[in-house]
Recover the amino acids of this structure.
């Protein structure tokens, strides 16, 4: 074999080996790539996840706290006056908002001073307004404030006459007019909505019968006993909503003029119970100023006024305010509302956790 032939044969042999090695590398490399290739993304699940393994309490809480169980609007101090169009216009603004509200309103409460003077003409003006909303307005309940006894200051010509008080009228007539207006058996009452209890306490006398009370809220022994009895179902910790008109004095004191007079007994009745919410009016204080929530053994909220909320300055626009309340299984939320422009008032926004029994 010549040298040329030997080299040619050697090169052929090397080529065969190289081709074999390349095939082997490709075959092995395919498995190596398969071994190191990153896993493909797992597509999102399209079925409902199995909640059986989730904590039962968390699942229950999510389901029960999403939607309110009861929603209502509290108005106070509407001060309807047959001779003053401004208060009537403000009440209409409030009712315009409520009857086209963004959320459910299942009842409306007015916590006293429905009228300016409790006269027949004031109640006629109030009824004229309410009639325009009767088809859309939810059930409405009210209690008496001091102004609902003011007919004793008004003479037969509709004029204020302090010197001639009681101008041939009486506190008993004021109570009778209120009872007739709201079709009640007595001036204080209670009721339930969606299983939630609302108690409406009412001022029972004014200066014609009891000069010593001034502008304060006097409750009789009968009303206080009734109130105590009505609170008893709430030993289980269920929420209860109590409406008064005049605010409370400092803790440990009874009230005087412009306050709830039998305040020590009132607080004593409420002390054994959790999840009690008390609402007062009378002060007309703007939700953009002042203190509107006072935590005691109960939660006490001070409402503003529909008819006469105090302006923050001389140049402030007209204002008409109320309080929107929503009850959930684990909390109560409260938001202050400006009815003149249908907006929420940021300074009045609370969420109160409910205590577990």
């Amino acid at each position: 074999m010549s040298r040329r032939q030997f080299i040619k044969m050697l090169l052929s042999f090397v080529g065969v080996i190289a081709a074999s090695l390349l095939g082997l590398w490709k075959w092995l490399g395919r498995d190596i790539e398969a071994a190191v290739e990153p896993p493909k993304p797992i597509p999102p699940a399209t079925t409902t996840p199995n909640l059986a393994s989730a904590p039962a309490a968390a699942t229950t809480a999510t389901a029960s706290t999403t939607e309110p169980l009861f929603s209502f609007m509290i108005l106070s101090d509407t001060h309807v006056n047959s001779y003053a169009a401004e208060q009537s216009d403000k009440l209409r603004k409030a009712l315009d908002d409520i009857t086209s509200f963004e959320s459910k309103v299942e009842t409306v409460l007015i916590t006293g001073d429905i009228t300016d003077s409790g006269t027949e003409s004031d109640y006629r003006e109030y009824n004229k307004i309410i009639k325009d909303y009767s088809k859309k307005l939810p059930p409405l309940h009210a209690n008496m404030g001091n102004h609902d006894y003011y007919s004793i200051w008004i003479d037969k010509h509709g004029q204020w006459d302090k010197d001639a008080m009681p101008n041939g009228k009486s506190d008993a007539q004021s109570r009778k007019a209120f009872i007739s207006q709201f079709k009640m058996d007595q001036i204080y009452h209670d009721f339930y909505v969606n299983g939630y209890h609302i108690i409406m306490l009412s001022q029972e006398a004014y200066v014609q019968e009891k000069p010593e009370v001034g502008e304060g809220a006097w409750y009789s022994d009968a009303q206080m006993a009734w109130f105590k009895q009505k609170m008893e179902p709430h030993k289980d910790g269920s929420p209860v909503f109590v409406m008064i008109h005049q605010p409370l004095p400092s803790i440990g004191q009874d009230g005087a003029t412009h306050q709830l007079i039998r305040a020590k007994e009132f607080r004593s009745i409420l002390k054994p119970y959790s999840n009690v919410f008390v609402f007062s009016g009378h002060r007309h204080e703007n939700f953009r100023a002042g203190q509107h929530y006072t935590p005691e053994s109960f939660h006490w909220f001070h409402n503003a006024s529909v008819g006469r909320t105090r302006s923050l300055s001389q140049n402030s626009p007209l204002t008409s305010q109320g309080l929107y309340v929503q009850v959930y299984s684990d909390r109560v939320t409260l938001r202050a509302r400006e009815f003149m422009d249908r907006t929420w008032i940021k300074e009045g926004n609370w969420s109160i956790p409910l205590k577990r029994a």
Summary: DSSP finds seven helices and twelve strands in the chain. Residues 1-37 form one domain.
